[in-house]
Amino acid sequence: MSTAETADLLVTAATLSKEELLRDYRLGWESRQASLAGRKEVFMGKAKFGIFGDGKEVPQLAMARAFRAGDWRAGYYRDQTFMLAIGELTLQQYFAQLYAHPDVEAEPSTAGRAMNGHFGTRLLDEDGQFKNLAESKNSSADISPTGGQMPRLVGLAYASKLYRQNPELHNMTQFSVNGNEVAFGTIGNASTSEGMFFEALNAAGVLQIPMLVSVWDDHYGISVPAEYQTTKQNISEILRGLQRDGEGQEGFEIFVVKGWDYAALIDTYQRAAEVCRTQHVPVLIHVTEVTQPQGHSTSGSHERYKSKDRLSWEEEHDCLRKMREWLLSEGQASEEELDQIESEAKETVKQARVAAWESFFNPIKQERTEVVTLLNKLVAETGTEHQINELVEPLAQNPAPIRADLVRTVRRVLRRVRTVRSAARRDLQNWLEQALAENADRYNSYLYSQSEEAALNIEEIKAEFAPNTPQVDGREVLQACFEANFRRDPRIFAIGEDVGRIGDVNQAFAGLQEKFGELRVTDTGIRECTIVGQGIGAAMRGLRPITEIQYLDYLLYAIQILSDDVASLQYRTKGGQKAPLIVRTRGHRLEGIWHSGSPIQMILGSIRGIHLCVPRDMTQAAGFYNTLLRSDEPAIVIECLNGYRLKERIPQNVGEFTVPLGVPEVLREGQDLTIVTYGSMCRIVQDAAKQLEEVGIFVEIIDVQTLLPFDIEQIISDSLRKTNRVLFADEDVPGGATAYMMQQVIDEQGAYQLLDSAPRCLSAQAHRPPYGSDGDYFSKPNAEDVFDTVYEMMQEADPKRFPAIY
Asked: What positions does the domain Transketolase-like pyrimidine-binding occupy (predicted)?
């Protein structure tokens, strides 16, 4: 059905009943009163910070009327009215988030883990399995970094394209109905200055996906006005080149509408969503003349940077004031009716606020009563009031304690009565143990999946090799693995630069586009951030993307979105959302400043919540892919760039065998010293081990295989019980991954007590390696470096047996 044919079926302000119009007005005012009350709660000390959606109410009401079951939102922290209007947020939940209530039932978006204004729906059931998302109104979990919602938005919309165009996915009705779902994105005008915004729009235009972006334009980014933000101070004007030439042509549809014009907003969103939904054309709606009555946030007042004329204009053009004027002019309501709605909205918000506070605070008060009772019992039994009363009284009198106050007091009391032995002290210890466990669940759980499909729950299946299996290039092992998985699971697809037609620059996807089609193996432009975002959104919608970043160095373009979005997704929703994305990349090559990547320290520090696999060869990499494609967690797999042409054997069960995460492999046994390493360094260390054997030193080599998780079975400690010496080696900068591995073994595993010599680290130089073989040799660890370091350690232990070489 064409746009013209459906135009008569669309909702307009004129077709809405009086009841519907007044419902919108009521919702708008309830949202406004929530913003006003929220700001007061922060200033009263009942919340830490506040950022609100006041001034955006009317355009969000219009957007909500175009939002259907199965649709998706990737927005930002001013969308409270929209969430209220689609029925996925209550006022009590809104205040529960403001108070950081750490309970999924009270605050389902984040369980108190994200500040207010960060919304998301619970996509998973209690077992961590996807619900029927085609029947619900869905919101991906918000993040604060400006523009950070845009890459994921591309993926949410791209999934609709795959669900529509790939017949193999048509039976997945739990996730899509013929790809009819629109992905709605929202962003502030200042955030459109971010590169992620422009990259996402370009990607959407190329892909032709149902992505509808609303820009709330209130002319400012905190205190910085539009003249410093946007060329021509008009985002839609400078994007006119994206406008398609006509129906059936590629490009965007662009609409401009005033944020206070309720009737025009209803009409615009209906038309825009229909084009987006039926034709899979991306749409930009520039919502202009938006106001922000309370300024940016509770951190300051907008009177400091807005002129009197601007403040007067904002008051006059407040969207709710304008909607009131429109309702009156259209004869839809009387002054008295609207006054009553506004008054009732204020009371409704008050009741929700009080209920949310009581729900949050009453359990803490009960816990405080329990603690004070235990403390008084301790005093009565032991006569230690002079020791602990100065701690007990402030807690008992605190009008608004938090759980940290309770735990802090108990820990300090137990410290002071550490020499006392009594039943009351044991009761207090038991309370503390239980409180720490409960708060670990509240604040520290779900960094990784806790479902049956978690990566660590995937059963290990050993690789099997037929007799006399010929050796082939390592890339062919990966190629066979990918082909087997693509045949097994139609949800799997791969995207990236040069992945499609030529089968990636190292040929692991060679021929697979011809076998499985362009929807399954797809080239992309040079846009690492949105390649990853495309995968995140698609994974949230039940698909299994492999997103390729051509070289590990280029992960820098995407590290922010990996770190802030997918790495924290399970955590910031307390198990309510997941995105089992696989990022495939390659590094550790030994020549060249920008293709020698081993920035492992950067990655380790940024992506907790994502598994990090560092296989030494392509067979191990294939085993990791088989594991990960059966799990429900995200991971990065770093293949060895100089290993694609090295010879390996293809397992008979190439698409079925699995390599467990967190389990190192002993590559060579020895009794003198343990070398812990991974990736390309394994071959260098093995070379050095042969040279060391010639002088009577027998090293044990351990390939950690994954850095996240790291040696969960403490295999390295078992080795140190035998060798009592350890060297950590890799190609990262000094203090990088070697320091991480040392911390894991010496600190986490407590292996310091097993050592007879100081642990050593061998890493690359602090700079990147220059081009050429000499640049490699003098910049990154080589076999001679390994030999000399090990020899020095052994010389220290037995100088007579191992005299100085140099």
From this structure: 472-646
The DSSP bridge partners found for residue 492 are 544
In a domain, 658, yes or no: no
CA distance 471 to 696: 33
Q: Is the peptide bond before 709 cis (omega within 30 degrees of 0)?
A: yes
Instruction: Give all strands of the β-sheet with 253-258 in edge-to-edge order.
Output: 138-139, 72-74, 183-188, 211-216, 283-288, 253-258
Residues 293 and 419 in one domain: no
From CA 28, how far away is CA 36, in angstroms rounded?
A: 13
Indicate the pTM of the whole model: 0.96
The encoded tokens of residue 686 equal 């093995």
Model confidence at 134: pLDDT above 50: yes
The confidence band for 590, taking pLDDT boundaries of 50, 70 and 90, is: low
Q: Answer yes or no: is pLDDT of 305 > 70.
A: yes
**Confidence at residue 188, expressed as pLDDT on a 0 to 100 scale:** 96
Q: What is the pLDDT of residue 5?
A: 47
Active site residues: 595
Q: Provide the pLDDT for residue 318.
A: 97
Give Cβ neighbours of residue 30 (< 8 Å, ≥ 6 apart): 84, 91, 345, 348, 349
Is the domain of 226 the same as that of 258?
yes
Distance CA 277, CA 209 (A): 9
Nearest to 546 by CA among 536, 555, 556: 536
Quick one: pLDDT at residue 3? 46
Indicate the burial class of 524 (C-beta count within 10 angstroms; 0-12, 13-18, 19 or more): buried
d(CA 454, CA 124): 14
Which pLDDT band, with edges at 50, 70 and 90, does 7 fall under?
Answer: low
- Tokens 């030439």 found at: 245
pLDDT at site 10: 84
Which of 626, 506, 56 is closest to 292 using CA atoms? 56
Quote the number of domains for the chain. 4
Q: Taking 50 as the threshold, does the pLDDT of residue 272 lie above it?
A: yes
pLDDT tens, position by position, 70-114: 999 999 999 999 999 999 999 999 999 999 999 999 999 999 999
What's the gap between Cα 83 and its chain centre?
Answer: 21
Query: Does residue 75 sit in the same domain as residue 206?
Result: yes
CB 272 within 8 Å of CB 255: yes
Has residue 340 been placed in a domain? no
Residues 714 and 465: their CA atoms lie apart, in Å, by 29
User: CA 252, 253, 254: angle at the middle one, nearest 5?
Assistant: 110
Of the candidates 468, 463, 471, the residue with the CA atom closest to the CA atom of residue 645: 471
Closest C-alpha to 543, from 567, 579, 584? 579
Residue 566 DSSP class: I
Q: In what order do the strands lie in the sheet with 492-496?
A: 521-523, 492-496, 544-548, 582-587, 635-640, 611-613, 706-708
Alpha-carbon 343 to chain mean position: 40
Amino acid at 571: Y
Average pLDDT value over all residues in the chain: 95
With beta carbons less than 8 A apart as the criterion, state whether 70 and 177 touch. yes
Q: Which two tokens stand for residue 734?
A: 């000094």
523, 498 Cβ separation under 8 angstroms: yes
Predicted confidence at residue 1, as pLDDT, reads: 42
**Are 639 and 681 in the same domain?**
no
Give the pair of three-digit tokens for residue 515.
Answer: 């076998």
Return the CATH number at 173: 3.40.50.970
pLDDT tens per residue across span 47-66: 999 999 999 999 999 999 99
For residue 500, which amino acid is it? Answer: G
| Bridge partners of residue 72, in order along the sequence | 138, 183
Q: How crowded is residue 291: how many other Cβ atoms within 10 Å of its Cβ?
A: 24
**pLDDT above 80: residue 597:** no
- CA 321/CA 644 separation, integer angstroms: 66
Segments forming the whole domain that contains residue 790: 666-797
pLDDT in tens, 332-376: 999 999 999 999 999 999 999 999 999 999 999 999 999 999 999
Which residue(s) pair with 676 in the sheet? 702, 728
